[in-house]
Amino acid sequence: MTTVDHLRQVRLGNLRTVLLALVDRPGSRADLAARTGLTKATLSNLTEPLLAAGVLVEDPATGAGMGRPSKPLRFHPDGPVAVGAEINVSHLAVETLGLDGETLRRHLVPADIRKAPADEVLDRVAELIREHTGGKKLLGAGLAVPGVVHDGVVVRAPNLPKLVGVPLAEGLGARLGTEVELDNEANLAALAHLWPKHLAGEDFVHVSADVGIGAGVVLHGEVYRGASGFAGELGHVVIERDGVRCTCGSKGCVERYAGLDVILREAGRRRLDSLQKALAAGDPRAVRATHQAGQALGVGLATLMNLFDVPTVVLGGSYAVLHDHLSAAIQSEMDTRVLAGGERHTRLVASPLGEFAVVRGAAGLVTRRAVLQPERLVG
């Protein structure tokens, strides 16, 4: 490595440190110097290009008493943004995120995607993104799908077979004129609990459901994907050897007993809000359907706990909404089946991010990359 290359790497490393500090919270140069260990002169040298580019903004001087008033630095509210999009069986969703992790806009559109051609789906997603970003500069886009992803292509998606083999990242990128990164929706929902803030610690499983069930496994602060991207396919863990036939071709998979569509069907309801009202009223059919789903989910989760030995399970999406009605049945199964000791070992919590965890994680994939690779911001 040449001296010039070395100096560039040092500068980028220092810039990364500053950006991470600003993600944590805004601060003056003096404050940032104290938090990062860099000199105020170095900080000025690093931040001036970002101020000029509209990535950062310096607020008016504040403070009283002795010394020079401080001028807090923060990410510019009108600076470049990232967008996350989700293609799921029953909806499309988008969220626009600033570099500071603040949600600028989000929207979910109910839609039956199962039979729609991939090009039609991408056209709809691109249009949603354009509506939500307006004239803002795009850092890039993250795209979430309920399937196994490899090199920007869905290689397996039992509930959305028309997307398999299609270069979705390339197709959406061509429509938007920006870089797009494709990932599994469960992994991205888990990432939303890691970036920009740790919401569930550094070791946990995030599980959510639509028609299928996805689990994102987080170990030591990183999403664990496995050698081929198949890690966390909780929905296709077999809990009954000769059980109900699944869309994946197997039998007895967890999602055939605990997927949201199964809960709704067994409860005699069409929508989640209707199920909530029935549960609040103590409707026996709704209570029974939800309890049985909780039992099935608990069996599947116990398998994951025995494999990965993490201390926390985060219920997301519709499971977060149904947490109070699912948790007792889930916990009971884990208490019985988790070798490390059930309730004494595993914490069962509802996600604070609700139904937008996936798109928040998809957008966070882009903002995290921009902060960790600051050359994307300054060239």
Name some characteristics of this structure.
5-stranded mixed sheet, globular, 379 residues, alpha/beta, 14 helices
Structural notes for this entry:
- The chain has 379 residues and is α/β, with parallel strands linked by helices.
- It has 14 helices and 14 strands.
- The protein has helices spanning 3-24, 29-36, 40-52, 118-133, 168-176, 185-191, 255-258, 260-267, 272-280, 284-308, 318-321, 323-337, 357-372, 375-378; strands spanning 56-58, 73-75, 81-87, 91-98, 103-110, 138-145, 148-150, 153-156, 180-184, 204-209, 213-219, 222-224, 312-315, 347-350.
- It has a five-stranded mixed sheet with strand order 5-4-3-6-9. Strands 12-11-10-13-14 form a five-stranded mixed sheet, with helices on both faces.
- Helix 6 (185-191) crosses helix 13 and helix 10 (284-308) crosses helix 12 (323-337).
- The longest helix has 25 residues, at 284-308.
- It starts with a helix and ends with a helix.
- The relative contact order is 0.13.
- The model has no long low-confidence stretch (mean pLDDT 90).
